[in-house]
Design a protein that fits this description.
Layout lengths: L14 E7 L4 E7 L7 E8 L4 H18 L4 E8 L6 H21 L2 E5 L5 H10 L13 E2 L2 E2 L4 H17 L7 E5 L3 H12 L3 E7 L2 E4 L6 H11 L2 H5 L4 E3 L11 E3 L19 E2 L9 H9 L3 E2 L2 H4 L2 H10 L4 H26 L3 H19 L6 H12 L2
Parallel strand pairs: 3-4, 3-5, 8-9, 8-12, 12-13, 13-14
Antiparallel strand pairs: 1-2, 2-4, 6-7, 9-10, 10-11
Helix pairs in contact: 1-12, 2-3, 4-5, 4-10, 4-11, 10-11, 10-13, 11-12
Length: 392
């Protein structure tokens, strides 16, 4: 606990809940970073090696994300210590136990928990039902595009929008740019798909099993098809490509790097090896603050992670107001591109890293809301607010 207390600052976290059900092997944690806007939300990560500290950092990233884009919500995050590859009744039992354990939070109306690494919309439906929450109507996240749920597209598309804006700011085009992507799951696959659609050349991909690199480009359509049959093995079985160590994905001679997994994989000890000109992240906080400053000093444009990976939040908001698939993509283009350009430009004027500037601005919004003690927005007004924010 003394180490965990070092994560507490002027924003939060307000509450940390550990839950457990030994009968089914469920062990979880929920972190509520702030309820200054009356409610808090975030995703639910299922991995065997998460830490409470990691979930605290991720809850704060959600606070920054909501504040940056103007959503009247505070950050939260949940974690379940379990193998994400568990299937069937064992998985369902863990999810149901988690839902029952955290139901008081849902009942209080302060936490909405969606999908994250290791979980999907079907998982969240299971623990919502176990928590006694009403079954949602048709989920936009589960509607299909090109044979895959929209949740496999939205975040990846937003990452590409941010990368495109950063490339424009850097004076380079996305067409023909070389890209290295960490991860080839539901989000990484989406990034690869939309990078190719934009004319970029994906030359490297990694996943939990390894990494491949071909400077002449990878056949993303072939990989996406193979993934349907082979899952994670598709990357390792792909030919022609050179097999490299997973960690090398961060240091390849590419134009654009897409970190896609865990926090703080790029730090002051290895940041000098990064060769990319632009970084647009799937992952939350993949780069330490010290490394972000070094990247800025080196002239590398790193889009703040809570800007580039807003896709899931936009998808959820569009779903809540009855939006369409087209609305999701339109909203991401109109929100992510301009904010990316604004933060990069203003960071340059102040001679600080883009993330430092974006964090400062988000923090100011949260603290201002606390000082003003704004009342929570009623649900019907919240939906109207979302429509105005997303222009739907």
């Amino acid at each position: 606990m003394p180490e965990l207390m070092k994560t507490v600052d002027e924003i939060g976290p307000e509450r940390i809940f550990h839950v457990c059900d030994p009968s089914v092997g469920m062990k979880g944690v929920v972190v509520v970073d702030t309820t200054v806007f009356g409610r808090a939300g975030g995703g639910t990560r299922m991995l065997p090696d998460i830490t409470t500290e990691e979930i605290v950092w991720l809850a704060r990233a959600m606070t920054y994300k909501y504040a940056t884009f103007g959503f009247p919500t505070g950050g939260a995050k949940a974690g379940i210590w379990a193998d994400p590859n568990i299937i069937g009744e064992q998985r369902d039992a863990i999810l149901r136990a988690f839902g029952k354990a955290v139901s008081p939070l849902f009942s209080a109306g302060v936490v909405g928990l969606g999908a994250d690494m290791g979980t999907d919309a079907a998982d969240t439906a299971i623990f919502r039902e176990a928590a006694g929450l009403p079954t949602r109507g048709s989920s936009l996240a589960q509607q299909e595009k090109d044979g895959e749920p929209i949740e496999n597209h939205a975040t990846g598309y937003g990452v590409v929008v941010a990368a495109k804006a950063a490339c424009e700011f850097a004076g380079m085009g996305l067409d023909g740019a070389t890209v290295a992507i960490e991860g080839f799951g539901k989000v990484g696959g989406g990034v690869a798909r939309y990078m190719v659609d934009a004319g970029a050349k994906v030359v490297a991909i990694s996943n939990i099993d390894g990494a491949i690199y071909n400077e002449n480009g990878l056949d993303i359509s072939k990989l996406l098809e193979a993934r349907k049959e082979s899952g994670d093995r598709a990357v390792q079985e792909y030919q022609p490509a050179r097999h490299i160590d997973r960690a090398e994905i961060y240091f390849l001679p590419v134009d654009i790097l897409i970190p896609g997994a865990r926090p703080h994989v790029i730090d002051k000890g290895n940041v000098s090896r990064v060769q990319a000109k632009v970084i647009s992240s799937i992952a939350n906080i993949p780069i330490t603050d010290e490394a972000e400053e070094i990247l800025y000093q080196r002239g590398i444009y790193s889009v703040p992670d809570f800007i580039s990976n807003i896709g899931g939040v936009v998808l959820g908001a569009c779903s809540g107001i009855g939006g369409t698939v087209d609305d999701v993509f339109k909203s991401l283009r109109e929100l992510v591109g301009p904010i990316t350009l604004n933060v990069l430009a203003d960071a340059g004027k102040e001679a600080i890293s883009p993330r430092s500037l974006a964090v400062r601005r988000a923090t100011e919004k949260v603290l201002k809301a606390r000082t003003e003690k704004r009342p929570a927005i009623p649900e019907e007004d919240r939906l109207k607010f979302y429509r105005e924010l997303l222009k739907i």
